[in-house]
């Protein structure tokens, strides 16, 4: 669009004002002079810092192993992100607050690390205590024997309950 609006000849005052605004908007985000120099230096420093950090993090993550020792042998598992221990030995880190050891039960003690959740005593799936059952099925009532042995001749059949003759209904005042 700038090639069409090359010169002020033939443009009305409003069009010249719009052209001026358009040129200002094209340069709005561009920096000039000292500001441009400082911005470029800042970008270069950020690139060096992030490239160096990303490269260093990549090399240390690939070789970062758990620091725990089991029977005088170092654990060969890879450590969790941002920690120095694997999932099996994370509770040896005294500064971490995300995992606790499962307490287990009296019969079967358990020391597996479990993520801390909203419960006060986190448990592994093996020792998870289920809440009490909310639904209790109704108990079938036992019918006394006296009612079962009642004589059946006291009851009327369906045929006996039907009217035998139809009587006209008369209404009187």
Automatic annotation (TrEMBL):
Highest taxon in the source lineage: Eukaryota
Subcellular location: Mitochondrion; Nucleus
GO terms, biological process: chromatin organization
Annotated ranges, domain KANL2-like probable zinc-finger: 72-127
Residue ranges that the Swiss-Prot or TrEMBL entry lists as coiled coil: none
Keywords: Chromatin regulator, Isopeptide bond, Mitochondrion, Nucleus, Phosphoprotein, Ubl conjugation
PANTHER family: KAT8 REGULATORY NSL COMPLEX SUBUNIT 2
Protein name per its UniProtKB record: KAT8 regulatory NSL complex subunit 2
Gene name, Swiss-Prot/TrEMBL: Kansl2_1
């Amino acid at each position: 669009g700038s090639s069409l609006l090359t010169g002020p000849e033939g443009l009305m005052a409003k069009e010249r004002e719009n052209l001026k605004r358009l040129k200002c908007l094209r340069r709005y985000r561009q920096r000039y002079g000292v500001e441009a120099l400082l911005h470029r230096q800042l970008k270069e420093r950020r690139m060096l810092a992030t490239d160096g950090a990303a490269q260093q993090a990549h090399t240390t993550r690939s070789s970062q192993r758990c620091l725990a020792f089991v029977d005088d042998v170092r654990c060969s598992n890879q450590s969790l992100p941002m920690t120095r221990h694997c999932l099996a030995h994370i509770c040896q880190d005294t500064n971490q607050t995300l995992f606790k050891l499962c307490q287990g039960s009296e019969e079967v003690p358990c020391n597996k690390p479990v993520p801390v959740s909203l419960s006060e005593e986190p448990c592994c799936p093996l020792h998870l205590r289920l809440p009490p059952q909310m639904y209790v099925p109704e108990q079938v009532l036992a019918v006394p024997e006296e009612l079962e042995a009642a004589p059946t001749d006291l009851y009327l059949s369906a045929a006996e309950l039907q009217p035998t003759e139809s009587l006209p209904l008369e209404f009187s005042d």
